[in-house]
Amino acid sequence: MSSVIERSAGDKTGVVIAGGGQAGLQVATSLRQGGYDGPVTIVSQEPRLPYQRPPLSKTYIKTDAAFESLLLKPESFFEKNAIGFLPGEQAVAIDRQAQTLALSNGTSLSYDHLVLAVGAANRVIPIPGRELAGVHQLRTAEDAEHLRAGLADAQRIVIVGGGFIGLEVAAALRALDKHVTVVEAADRLMGRTVSRQVSGFFLDEHRNMGTDIRLGAGVAAILGDKRAEAVRLSEGTELAADLVLIAAGVVPNDGLACEAGLATDNGVLVDHHMTTSDPQIFAIGDCATFHSPFAERLVRLESVQNAVDQAKLVAETILAGEAAASIAPYRAVPWFWSDQGPFKLQIVGLTAGADHVEMASLGEAGKLVAYCFRGDRLLGIETVNRPGEHMLGRRILAEDLVVARGEVAHEDFNLKAHVAALKARG
User: Fold this and answer.
1) In degrees rounded to 5, what are phi and psi of residue 176?
2) Which of 4, 197, 210, 229 qualifies as a cystine partner to 85, CB 3.0-4.6 A?
3) pLDDT category of residue 426 using cuts at 50, 70 and 90
4) What is the pLDDT of residues 273-296, one digit of tens each?
5) Signal peptide span per the entry (predicted)?
6) Cα–Cα distance between 204 and 384 in angstroms, integer?
7) In angstroms, what CA-CA distances link 6 with 2, 36, 93?
């Protein structure tokens, strides 16, 4: 696809956005909605218009859905809003003194403001045999399409990694009646993101779906001549495989920033307005590390919510000009979701540091609410198929409402009534 709107090199009156995902598109959209009339250009390494990534690991791989169903905006949107879009181009270097961004085609773009929305890349783990045909990863629509094509002749699937992506794919493939084995090196599923109680729930449910889950299992090698035929575990067991998916997490794309001398720490370091150590450069989304008041530490979040909210803040900051210092610091409540078969996991807050989890007694199969505390402070709420409690959790964290451990522990505790009582008391 050719550029929708081209931006001439040397034009130094606008905003250049490196990254054509949801975060980058949201910056451009919010700038135009806010009345910004200077040039806005998105540089995208992928040769496609911006699209949704969450469906890739679920509906997209198990149906014949067209790519167009994933698009965030049609091509006409870019034309109507005079947003330059340069597909299939990689940002390769930043000259901070000259305020230019060099591209892989040998040209460069001048900027007043540069936004790094370059996302993350799949973690590369040194497994012998990972170069064999039939070994896949999943990050882009192209990855998903290759995976979908490979599934046509594959019945035995081994997934390396028991995080969100691995488990979402496992559930999708069980719905296609594939034989699925998930190999996870840790002692539980989704260990970085949810409590042990919720991990245990999903372990049971995935096994009930018919998925073979191997915990505490390392991968020694992927075996085969030209194509993957088996996965050998560290303890010697060999799992027959027609197709292997490596879903071992991601790492931030912070190399561009690092080479430009910007501060990094597991991502590009930004302040409460998403500004990097260079005041003309912002970083947002999966590549940005910032201090979260909800975790009281530096974090890097991989979620649609975080990408969109940070993008809106950057646009607001650019639009404010010299008054940018008066804009409220970033304090969007973090929330996440994962659809795994019939189970919608929703998380509000950052619950990884919890030292106490109180499970609500719902008496309903396939549903749960887990209140996660550190000391007496509610860090967040994890729910399964309970959207009402999830939405209340967002309100609780956004408004700093108090939910005490002792109250939650009561069998008759009702979150909706509790929030209503708190609001009534003012």
Assistant:
1) -95, 5
2) 4
3) low
4) 999 999 999 999 999 999 999 999
5) none
6) 14
7) 9, 18, 20
Determine the Cα–Cα distance for residues 396 and 378; give it in Å rounded to an integer: 9
Q: Phi first, then psi: give them for residue 268, nearest 5 degrees.
A: -85, 120
Domain range list for the chain: 15-50+65-121+251-326, 135-248, 342-424
Q: If you write DSSP's letter for every residue of 146-204 in order, what string do you get?
A: HHHHHHTT--EEEEE--SHHHHHHHHHHHHTT-EEEEEESSSSTTTTTS-HHHHHHHHH
The answer, yes or no, to whether residue 22 has pLDDT greater than 90, is yes
Mean pLDDT over each residue of the chain, to the nearest integer: 94
Residue type, 322: E
The phi-psi region of residue 274 (left if phi > 0; otherwise alpha if psi is between -120 and 50; otherwise beta) is left
What's CA 409's distance to the chain center, in Å? 32
What is the enclosing helix (H) or strand (E) of 31? helix 22-33
Task: Confirm if 320 and 313 have CB atoms less than 8 A apart.
Answer: no
We find that the CATH architecture of domain 342-424 is 2-Layer Sandwich (3.30)
Check residue 71 and report its DSSP letter. B
Say which CATH class 15-50+65-121+251-326 falls into. alpha beta
Q: How confident is the model at residue 2 (pLDDT cuts 50, 70, 90)?
A: very low
CA distance 395 to 112: 37
**Domain 135-248, what fold?**
FAD/NAD(P)-binding domain (3.50.50)
pLDDT tens-digit map of 30-45: 999 999 999 999 999 9
Evaluate whether 78 touches 5 at the Cβ level (below 8 Å): yes
Contact of 21 with 307, CB cutoff 8 Å: yes
SS3 42: strand
Same fold, 15-50+65-121+251-326 and 135-248: yes
Distance (Å, rounded) from C-alpha 39 to C-alpha 7? 8
> Which residue is it, tokens 């998403």?
274
Q: How many angstroms separate the CA atoms of 24 and 19, rounded? A: 6
Q: Which residues contact 96 (CB under 8 A, 6 or more apart)?
A: 260, 261, 278, 280, 281
* Residue 42 to residue 84: CA distance in whole angstroms: 6
d(CA 352, CA 341): 24
User: What is the strand order of the sheet 297-299 is part of?
Assistant: 268-269, 288-292, 297-299
Instruction: Give how far the C-alpha of residue 79 lies from the chain's centroid of Cα atoms, to the nearest Å.
Output: 28
